[in-house]
């Protein structure tokens, strides 16, 4: 387990933090759970983002905390996510989490996959 600095790794906007807390409450996710943020192969640009709740960190995870929200990120995913801002949009163009990833050199039209 490695504690990481939010500013140097991944940042979470207040909108994203509030939405994570809302989802946890609406789905009775225990407060001690964290949001596992990851990257896996797939999508039209080569890589896709993954989000799911997890009770425990795993060996090698980095843990990023903001207020009452905890993110778990495995080392491989962190490589692709360094410097990313996790945001949330509920505007006219859709509702969902947005990864503002400076490492992405290409993205698909829907914004759910990226390439480096």
What does this structure look like?
The chain has 116 residues and is an alpha/beta fold. The chain has one domain: Sandwich (Hypothetical Protein Aq_1857, Chain: A), CATH 2.60.300.12. It has two helices and ten strands; from the N terminus they run ββαββββαββββ. The two termini are 27 Å apart.
Q: Strand share of the residues?
A: 35-45%
Rounded to the nearest angstrom, the distance between the terminal CA atoms is 27 Å
Number of individual domains? 1
The side-by-side strand order for the widest beta sheet comes to 1-5-6-3-4-10-9
Q: Would you tell me the structural class of the helices and strands?
A: alpha/beta
CATH superfamily membership? HesB-like domain
Extract low-pLDDT stretches: 1-7
Mean pLDDT: 83
The main sheet comes to: 7 strands, mixed
CATH hierarchy, class: Mainly Beta
**How would you classify the quaternary structure?**
single chain
Choose one word for the global shape. globular
Count the E strands.
10
Q: Indicate the percent of residues in helices.
A: 10-25%
- The CATH architecture can be named as Sandwich
User: What is the CA-based Rg, rounded?
Assistant: 14 Å
Q: Key terms for this structure?
A:
disordered N terminus; 116 residues; single chain; three-stranded mixed β-sheet; alpha/beta; seven-stranded mixed β-sheet; Hypothetical Protein Aq_1857, Chain: A; globular
Layout of secondary structure:
Elements: E1 2-3, E2 11-12, H1 14-26, E3 34-41, E4 47-54, E5 62-66, E6 69-73, H2 75-81, E7 85-91, E8 94-100, E9 106-107, E10 113-115
């Amino acid at each position: 387990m490695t504690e990481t600095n939010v500013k140097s790794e991944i940042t979470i906007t207040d909108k994203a933090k509030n939405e994570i807390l809302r989802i946890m409450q609406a789905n009775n996710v225990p407060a001690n759970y964290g949001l596992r943020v990851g990257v896996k192969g797939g999508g039209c640009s080569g890589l896709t983002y993954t989000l799911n709740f997890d009770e425990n960190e795993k060996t090698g995870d980095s843990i990023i905390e903001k207020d009452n929200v905890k993110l778990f990120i495995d080392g491989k995913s962190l490589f692709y996510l360094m410097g990313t801002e996790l945001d949330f949009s509920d505007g006219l163009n859709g509702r969902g989490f947005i990864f503002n990833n400076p490492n992405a050199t290409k993205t698909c039209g829907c914004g759910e996959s990226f390439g480096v």
